[in-house]
Amino acid sequence: MPAAAAGAGRGSWRAAPLELISLVLLLGTWQVLATLFPGRLFPTPVAVALELWQHLTDGKLLADLGKTLSRAFLAFGIAMLLGTAIGIAFGRSRLLDRLFSSWVVIGLNLPAIVIAIMLYIWLGLTEFALVLAVVLNKLPLVITTIREGVRSFARDFDDLARAYRLSFWRRMRLIWVPQLMPFVLAAARTGLSLIWKIVLVFEVLGSDGGVGFRISVFFQFFDIKGILAYSTAFILVVFAFEYLVLRPLEGRVLRWRRGGGQ
Amino acid sequence: MIGPELRLTGVGKRFDWLPDPLLDELSFTVAPGEVLALVGPSGVGKSTLLRMIGGVDTVFTGHVTIDGVEAGVAPPAGFVFQDPRLLPWLTALENIRAVRPETGRDEAVALLARVGLAGYEQAYPHELSGGMQRRVAIARALSVNPRLLLLDEPFVSLDRALAREMELLLTDLLDADHPTAVLVTHLNEDAAMLADRAVVLAGRPARIALDYRFESRRGSRDAVEREHIASRLAEAALESVR
Predict the structure, then answer these.
(1) Mean of the pLDDT values across residues B207-223?
(2) Is the backbone of residue A259 left (phi > 0), alpha (psi -120 to 50) or beta?
């Protein structure tokens, strides 16, 4: 067996300690700065950790996190499904692409806050308006990424499929989906990072709960410890998702790329 | 089991970007178990003919039949493309089974062993050398249809040593299975080595400049005889442009 196969997967484990060191470095820098500039508005990481623990045990942190995450994942799921379908259609049909590409350009460049305000005015400060606003912000990004993915499909593989009379479903499973997966994962990663931010901003703008809402309450009292505690909790969730879901998924789906690729 | 008969009758093909048709009223037959080399300069229409026989290109005039069945609806041939064209996200074994789900794991393993790749079942294409990738492509073709092989410049971009190695492998396979095979090549030496007969194509629309059935069996030809055949094919190509 070639060594490349046996060695596959070692890279990510080798990188893990470095990433851990990077986090420790960040916390250390924070601690040093907080010690150099002590004050109520610049708490140390230890103080923030204690605050986080307090919110976790007797505050509303879990409920708020649950609310924000459910909004984010709902919007993410809808945007990914819709965006992938539309992106494939645009990638396959030049007519559709030409007809609607200016819509996508508008969607990509319209400030997120404008969409949110318009939807809140039209639909009221509702859950539906919030999720729809997030979906509309994320959708153009997914569409363009997937469209480029479809455009980059190797035509040679279509010839292969024709020569060997592969059925539509086998072509889909064996040829198209694997070619699209790197683009879907790229759209998922960039999309998630965008959604986390947008959901929080929209929650600040108008909602009855969630991390963004709570941070806006803390802001009114200049409670920087509370803001940082909630932000830390949120970042921990993002890290958990990155390392427990996205990276293993990426490693599994793209394992054929390790050590090179064609 | 001997391979099928191929029959091309009045075949024509036109591309929008070419002023003249590429092919027009071209006809020839390949006998069951015969290895035919399609020889001629680049762009003469050799690969296009192969795509028609393989059912990849179905937009043309005339008829291409495999044992009397139109090529587009006939069972697929074992098609070996100019490049290995392996799916990079599948292992060698999976690449074989991808094109023919009925191929069992043991059968695929045996096919890989037959082309000299025992032990490489779980290797991804990027873990294999160029020559090994082509061997997988041949194993894949054999899994689909060992009776009818369509070989499109199978040695292109290989160094001479590797090309020689592949020639020997193909010679063994052709001798063992007696498939009907069409070998597209621009190298007369390859035709002299592997084929029973060569059709030299020239001009536009392409016409048959020479239909040459070699006198000796392919395995028994020495270097001098192969040289003689290659020279004859080169002369025919040269005469056609005079």
Answers:
(1) 89
(2) left
Q: Name the pLDDT band for A13 (thresholds 50, 70, 90).
A: low
CB-closest option in B55, B122, B124 to A163 = B55
Number of domains in chain A: 1
pLDDT for the residue numbered B145: 93
Average pLDDT score over residue span B87-98: 96
Nearest CA in chain B to A4: B127
| Closest to A52 in 3D by CA, of A218, A211, A224, A230 | A230
Segments forming the whole domain that contains residue B232 = 6-77+150-241
- pLDDT value of position A260: 46
Q: Select from A1, A164, A178 the Cβ nearest to the Cβ of B123.
A: A1
Domain count for chain B: 2
**Structure tokens of B31?**
């006998």
Residue A127: CATH number of its domain? 1.10.3720.10
Mean pLDDT of chain A: 87
Residue A185 to chain B, least CA–CA distance (Å): 15
pLDDT at B163: 85
Q: What is the DSSP letter of A257?
A: G
User: Does residue B1 form part of some domain?
Assistant: no
pLDDT tens for each residue of A120-135? 899 988 889 999 999 9
Q: What percent of chain B has pLDDT over 90?
A: 74
